Amino acid sequence: MGTSIRIARVAGINVFLHWTTILFFAWIAISDAAKSDSPIPFRGLLFVVTVFTSIVLHELGHALMARRFGIPTKDITLLPIGGLARLQKIPEDPRQELLIALAGPAVNGILVVVFAGLILIARGAAGLNVSLAESHWLNFVMWVNFGMGIFNLLPAFPMDGGRVLRALLATQIDYVRATEVAARIGQALAVLLAIVGFYLNSMLMLIAFFIYIGAQQEKVLAQVHSILRNVPVREAMRKHFSSLKADDPLPVVLEEAIASSQHDFPVVGSGQQLRGMVFHNDLLSALNQQPPFTTVAEIMQDRVEVVQAETMLDQVFERMNELNRSTMPVVLHGRIVGLVSLENIGEWMMLHSQKGGDVVATTPNLTNRIARRQVPHSPAAIEDGIREHRAEPMATTRVD
Ligand SMILES: [Zn+2]
């Protein structure tokens, strides 16, 4: 994540601090510095760091429970409003989802008990040498964790309680329907929270906004999965595509890229055997940096994951998101038979399902991902795009 810095690596999981959180810390530290009468220097910062440590532990609770079910966590990011553990996927088995969702608040519960014990011990020793400030801090940690645990159990996506609710519903009704019901309840709660926040605390309004958006995304994701679940890749893949040979020089590749509306090219050997892929970004950077006699073999990626033609689209969609790939080669009996891209999947959804069309039309995230890949169809425009890129080798535009 370009806008976050890594602060720790716990149990093999990277913990990032989002830049807005760094600003938030700085702001607290500055307001601390202004208060010179405080008994402990940077007391506010100490308390905020305590809160964020509790958040990390909460997120680790989710991550480690997910790991038990074989689901890795990409990373944990700390935002000013809380933490975000990015699990590689959400299990569709309701029991697993339930346990993963409960693991976070359970960590807070354990911390509450531990700190309540420490407070009792401190009280026993009070009058001897425990300073007021220290017991203050113990109280603070206990109540923060109590609040965090309870708040996260609110039955609203993306709070843990929303997942608990969905998991419980999913044991009775269809998963997608369960998600829709849980999302609707979550959005209703978000509106309620926003109203309360309007009168009490603007921070609550911000949280309400995130809950509302989170519920919407969760609903869309479940819908996409349900639409794509029973569709094999071969139905949505691009069957007519251009391919390259390993010894093709760059100008040939450029010509091919301009002549077709294709962004990523498979490299094939004899008998349509896949040897690698040249992705749009690789091509653009090669055009910027490599001499024209460079061959495809030098710029292609030779270790690419392939999809079997009979694999279901929802699995491919998930895998593409995991790998951050927008195109994957489709093979049948070891020979390449097509290409599947996020555009193909989006198009398939629009053409074959009324609901899919609605989802694509109303989901900025999904359509953005698809739209970003839609380079203008006129060859001149593509050429312009490439020239523009050549003129500006440092351009940070990500095309895929
Ligand atoms: Zn949680």
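qc> The CA atoms of residues 240 and 338 lie 7 Å apart.
qc> done
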